[in-house]
Specification:
Aminoglycoside 3'-phosphotransferase, Chain: A, domain 2, 10 helices, 10 strands, single chain, globular, Phosphorylase Kinase, domain 1
């Protein structure tokens, strides 16, 4: 479910009329196609379907606009190396009609957005996700930027502890002492000592599309780059069931320390997201609650 409430200070307003005006002014070949907003738990972009074969992505914040060139550069090089479809950028638009940032037109990808739990966290999806993160890890493209969350887990320590304290002040039914203990266990895991490798770095369910019990596509590569592969293990807790989690781990072929750091990243993201989005993004806040519950049960 999407929300009409703004999630961020300084968030841009978007609506189908704006999309039509932007297309009319810059890409008139698509201006006559129907436009509708897609329901999404995304926090960085508003996504609109245009006709049957395209989407328009409008960043909600200035920082999101900075990822457009990044995707346009790297997605064509990554796509042939990956086992599932990824976005294809077909055009990049300029600020206009009161909208302040650059925006993008992508090719439509088939599939439904995945949601945490038994219906979507199947062993088939687990195997497909493992194949995806393994292929990305082995991409070997030189010159990649540092991935978002690509450094040591300790870089998130201050923000995570602040978020745990913010969570403590809410009415959420979680044992924040247990959350702190789980976080400190993850922090104690040995750091990554291998060569930096390619990661997606934001494998939230809202960035995963599925069909017929399998992974159909992976979207939103704005955070992709090189770093510690642990960050791409977060679907183990934000999507997969306890029964399918070992299938993912076996396919991803990671050691105990990397698995523990992955659990730490999943926990950090969830405890940061929940206090921030609990009143503005029901999809993200529900997933954050799910992750915290899974990790506390998994210890």
């Amino acid at each position: 479910m999407s929300t009409t409430r703004k999630m961020h200070a300084g968030e841009a307003h978007t609506d189908p009329g704006l999309v039509r005006r932007l297309l009319r002014g810059q890409f008139p070949q698509w201006a006559g196609l129907p436009v509708s907003r897609l329901e999404s738990g995304g926090t960085v972009n508003a996504i609109y379907r245009v006709g049957t074969g395209l989407t328009v992505r409008l960043p909600l914040l200035e920082g999101g606009a900075g990822t457009l060139d990044h995707e346009a550069r790297w997605l064509p090089r990554l796509a042939p190396l990956l086992p599932v479809p990824v976005p294809e950028v077909v055009a990049v638009g300029e600020p206009a009609e009161g909208y302040p940032w650059r925006w993008a037109v992508h090719r439509w990808l088939e599939g439904e957005v995945l949601v945490e739990g038994a219906e979507y966290g199947t062993e088939g999806v687990a195997r497909d996700l493992a194949a995806f993160v393994t292929a990305l890890r082995k991409a070997g493209l030189d010159g990649g930027p540092t991935a978002y969350r690509g450094g040591p887990l300790s870089t998130a320590d201050s923000e995570t502890r602040s978020a745990i304290e913010a969570l403590r002040r809410t009415d959420e039914p979680f044992d924040t002492d247990a959350i702190t203990a789980a976080w400190e266990t993850a922090l104690a895991a040995p750091h990554w000592t291998g060569a930096p490798c390619w990661t997606h770095s934001d494998l939230m369910p809202s960035n995963l599309l599925g069909a017929d019990g399998r992974l159909a596509a992976v979207i939103d590569f704005g955070t992709a780059g090189v770093g510690d592969p642990a960050i791409d293990l977060i679907p183990a807790w934000n999507l997969l069931t306890p029964a399918s989690r070992p299938v993912f781990r076996a396919g991803a072929d990671v050691d105990d320390a990397t698995w523990e750091r992955g659990r730490g990243w999943a926990l950090s993201m969830a405890v940061i997201q929940l206090p921030y989005y609990r009143h503005t993004n029901p999809v993200i806040s529900a997933n954050a609650r799910h992750v915290i519950g899974q990790i506390l049960a998994d210890r």
